[in-house]
């Protein structure tokens, strides 16, 4: 019995030693968890040079409104460049100059506003730390009164109502910078012509041969091997009036698949030739050139917004923002073996517009 009592005492002591550290650890953990982290507060405020030196403040103010005035000059220059450097038919240099000078004006207009606003905020607006207290979102009288107070404080801190040169130059820049876009969009519609009719018609007509882009060399059906893709324009396009405008609507991608891979509708079975099909390159989303052909999947990809079209199913949309299939150009072969168009596209190419039939 004595041996048993000693064994029981040893077991009790062992149990006590086993649980002791655990209790100490858990107690220590509880003490640490209850220790609150002291709020360090805001770091010492560092005043800017414009806060300390009135001369520097006036220099910063002059810099800001000068940038806003430069933005106005850029907007006016973009409009003037549109008129001074018009695009002339068959003159690629005029296209480059037009794009260059208009782009410089628009860039100056946008950069002037952007850099001026950033410099205004960093150098002149109030520079002190605040605490944004969380509170319930309610439309009470107190909330509305506080909103008015915030706007008044923001006006005072930004100096919008007090710094009249900055305010007026900013308003002038904001009014001026959209004007180049208005003028440029107006020039998209040819004067004296119906834009709806122009968008519904292209340079393709019955008997026009398909030619390589940009060489203009006609394409024979035997040239189009299985799995190949050709960038195509109408033959004689370079001799047409308004060549660039006509090319923008008439560009085509020509591909050859196995005839059994084409799932053609009954009314379009005569639009292809021995597995050769032709589709407009103008994406039906916003008009980007669809020029990437995946030979194995038979998919066409628009690089701008990743719309994908299935060539085996009349270029139906299988992915992306495009809402309609690419228009198909009906093709055939003439007596000399050259690929020709049976007619123009049966629908308007490119993005949708209000008067689209």
From TrEMBL:
<feature type="transmembrane region" description="Helical">
    <location>
        <begin position="64"/>
        <end position="85"/>
    </location>
</feature>
<dbReference type="GO" id="GO:0051537">
    <property type="term" value="F:2 iron, 2 sulfur cluster binding"/>
</dbReference>
<dbReference type="InterPro" id="IPR014349">
    <property type="entry name" value="Rieske_Fe-S_prot"/>
</dbReference>
<keyword id="KW-0001">2Fe-2S</keyword>
<dbReference type="GO" id="GO:0016705">
    <property type="term" value="F:oxidoreductase activity, acting on paired donors, with incorporation or reduction of molecular oxygen"/>
</dbReference>
<comment type="similarity">
    <text>Belongs to the Rieske iron-sulfur protein family.</text>
</comment>
<feature type="transmembrane region" description="Helical">
    <location>
        <begin position="170"/>
        <end position="189"/>
    </location>
</feature>
<dbReference type="InterPro" id="IPR036922">
    <property type="entry name" value="Rieske_2Fe-2S_sf"/>
</dbReference>
<protein>
    <recommendedName>
        <fullName>Cytochrome bc1 complex Rieske iron-sulfur subunit</fullName>
    </recommendedName>
</protein>
<keyword id="KW-1003">Cell membrane</keyword>
<feature type="region of interest" description="Disordered">
    <location>
        <begin position="36"/>
        <end position="55"/>
    </location>
</feature>
<keyword id="KW-1015">Disulfide bond</keyword>
<keyword id="KW-0472">Membrane</keyword>
<dbReference type="GO" id="GO:0004497">
    <property type="term" value="F:monooxygenase activity"/>
</dbReference>
<keyword id="KW-0249">Electron transport</keyword>
<keyword id="KW-0408">Iron</keyword>
<feature type="domain" description="Rieske">
    <location>
        <begin position="249"/>
        <end position="340"/>
    </location>
</feature>
<dbReference type="Pfam" id="PF00355">
    <property type="entry name" value="Rieske"/>
</dbReference>
<feature type="region of interest" description="Disordered">
    <location>
        <begin position="1"/>
        <end position="28"/>
    </location>
</feature>
<dbReference type="Pfam" id="PF19297">
    <property type="entry name" value="QcrA_N"/>
</dbReference>
<keyword id="KW-0679">Respiratory chain</keyword>
<keyword id="KW-0479">Metal-binding</keyword>
<keyword id="KW-0560">Oxidoreductase</keyword>
<dbReference type="InterPro" id="IPR017941">
    <property type="entry name" value="Rieske_2Fe-2S"/>
</dbReference>
<keyword id="KW-0813">Transport</keyword>
<keyword id="KW-0411">Iron-sulfur</keyword>
<comment type="function">
    <text>Iron-sulfur subunit of the cytochrome bc1 complex, an essential component of the respiratory electron transport chain required for ATP synthesis. The bc1 complex catalyzes the oxidation of menaquinol and the reduction of cytochrome c in the respiratory chain. The bc1 complex operates through a Q-cycle mechanism that couples electron transfer to generation of the proton gradient that drives ATP synthesis.</text>
</comment>
<dbReference type="InterPro" id="IPR045603">
    <property type="entry name" value="QcrA_N"/>
</dbReference>
<keyword id="KW-1133">Transmembrane helix</keyword>
<keyword id="KW-0812">Transmembrane</keyword>
<dbReference type="GO" id="GO:0005886">
    <property type="term" value="C:plasma membrane"/>
</dbReference>
<feature type="transmembrane region" description="Helical">
    <location>
        <begin position="100"/>
        <end position="121"/>
    </location>
</feature>
<dbReference type="GO" id="GO:0046872">
    <property type="term" value="F:metal ion binding"/>
</dbReference>
């Amino acid at each position: 019995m004595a041996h048993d009592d000693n064994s029981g005492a040893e077991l009790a002591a062992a149990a006590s030693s086993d649980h002791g550290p655990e209790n100490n650890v858990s107690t220590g953990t509880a003490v640490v968890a209850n220790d609150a982290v002291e709020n360090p507060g805001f770091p010492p405020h560092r005043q800017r040079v414009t806060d300390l030196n009135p001369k520097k403040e006036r220099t910063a103010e002059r810099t800001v409104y000068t940038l806003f005035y430069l933005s106005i000059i850029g907007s006016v220059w973009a409009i003037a460049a549109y008129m001074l450097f018009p695009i002339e038919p068959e003159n690629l240099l005029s296209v480059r100059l037009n794009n260059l000078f208009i782009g410089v004006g628009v860039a100056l207009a946008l950069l002037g506003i952007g850099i001026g606003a950033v410099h205004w905020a960093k150098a002149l607006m109030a520079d002190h730390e605040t605490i944004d207290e969380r509170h319930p979102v309610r439309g009470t009288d107190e909330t509305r009164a506080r909103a008015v107070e915030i706007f008044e404080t923001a006006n005072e801190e930004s100096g919008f109502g007090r710094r009249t040169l900055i305010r007026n130059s900013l308003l002038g820049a904001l009014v001026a910078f959209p004007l180049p876009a208005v003028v440029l969009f107006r020039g998209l519609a040819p004067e004296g012509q119906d834009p709806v009719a122009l968008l519904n018609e292209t340079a393709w007509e019955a008997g026009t041969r398909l030619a390589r882009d940009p060489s203009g060399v006609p394409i024979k059906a035997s040239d189009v091997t299985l799995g190949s893709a050709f960038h195509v324009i109408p033959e004689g396009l370079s001799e047409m009036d308004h060549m660039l405008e006509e090319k923008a609507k008439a560009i085509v991608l020509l591909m050859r698949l196995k005839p059994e891979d084409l799932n053609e509708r009954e009314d379009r079975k005569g639009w292809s030739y021995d597995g050769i099909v032709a589709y407009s390159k103008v994406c039906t989303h916003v008009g980007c050139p669809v020029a990437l052909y995946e030979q194995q999947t038979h998919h066409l990809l628009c690089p701008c917004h990743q719309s994908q079209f299935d060539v085996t199913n009349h270029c139906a949309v299988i992915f992306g923002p495009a809402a309609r299939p690419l228009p198909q150009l009906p093709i055939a072969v003439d007596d000399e073996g050259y690929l020709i168009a049976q007619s123009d596209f049966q629908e308007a190419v490119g993005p949708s517009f209000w008067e689209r039939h």
